[in-house]
Structures
1.
Amino acid sequence: MATALSKPPPGFVTLSALDAGHLSLPEHMFVNDADPVKKNLVPSLSFLIRHASPDGSVTNLVFDLGVKRDLNYTPAQQNELDIWRPLITETDCAKSLRNGVADAPGGASNGVLLDPTKDIDYIIISHAHWDHTGTPSDFPTATFAVGSGTLDLFQNGAGPAYPSIFFNKDELPALRTVEFPPVVRTGVYGNEPFAPKHTPLPSNTQAKPPAVAASWAWKPFGDLPNALDFFGDGSLYVVDTPGHIYGHVNLLARLGERRYVYLAADCCHDRRLVTGEKEIGLYDDGHGGLRSIHTDTEEARRSLERLKTFLKNHRAEGNEVELILAHDPVWRKENVHACWPGKV
């Protein structure tokens, strides 16, 4: 729910990182020329974004929910959790919101900073993978927003790579969830017979998207071909980022006149893919071939290249753009001050 607090001027947001569990990534599944047995313990970061309205209220939005604290996943997902162990779930998204992030200045509060049951207006889920969907039931009053096709993906899966057994049909509250408009695509990706279909809002919806949602549309923003102005004032853009899994989106948050943060979710999983030190890793697909962690490796590679071009050109124009990956332990270690109740 919106609360009257000290706030940034209209057109900007504030952003804070949230601890939402940890998992271990086998390095060879994410970058090339990797140690075949090395695992890296990484965070699954969530983010609190606070948006000021002209009427003096503040809207609270959470991007991604991380790992379920009770690991209550489907049986098929449970069977694969060993790949990602060690897992740490002691601090989840809801706890970080309530008490602050433990090692952040002002964190580990005995009081409630934000109550997940009533103080969160919106939750944007970047994509349907288990380490980003968290525990939606912790947020009984929030409106959820997801990429087009995500609700169908939870219900029916999407082809051989994503059978329905890997998803919980009731993962998100259907009556409180809105999908972003579909993106018209050329080529194969997103047009396969099994690609999930867009789910329109039902007549009995309880979702309460921003007033501008009726005019949401994908438009170019710099080198990003498809960006959607979430609040309608240029403070927060949803960025279509195909390749990783159907419905995958990123966020671009405007913190100041020329200061931005790009939340890349699983556009890539290792900062060396952005610097060019590494390439996307390929590993045995179990059927005599090779695959990557992405549904469509080439499409994911194109999304990453667009991101890199955007960062380079936007910075060349005099803008400060900070890139944050969902699973970057180095960023988390170096930016304790940016964790809630601190700000990026």
2.
Amino acid sequence: MPLRSDWSERPCSIARGIDAVGDPWTLLIIRELISGVRRFDEIRESVGVSDKVLANRLRQLVEGGLATRIPYGNASTRRYEYEPTQAGIDALPILHAFALWAEKHTPTAGLGQRLVIVCRDCGRESSRGETCSECGAVLSADNVSWIRPISTDRIPKPLGAAVER
């Protein structure tokens, strides 16, 4: 999904990656899909995006191979859930790196809590996004929990991306 132009054919892998996930709404939607939010209304509420923008971004994520669209309900009330594909799940280290970078380089005064990455292998907070800074385990949707800034209970919530169908 291009931001200003189509970068999908560029030889630079950073440019191609930006073309695929460089839109801010897209990264927030991938965050929600990885954390287990699946339905349109729930994604919209959590991200705070308009119906039109969300529908467009979800369509682009499906077309780009980062999410799948799964029907539910009967024929007269057919609706869809969205799940991240392996390509979408593989964006987890990008989200972690971005969150850690933002913690370090963007002002947080008065913003309250932050996203905490918890390795479920050792149960401790990681200060790195790809491997646990405490035990060295590779962090994946299967062994990571997040304590999100929006959570009032501050209990680590396992990611919901590793859904088997």
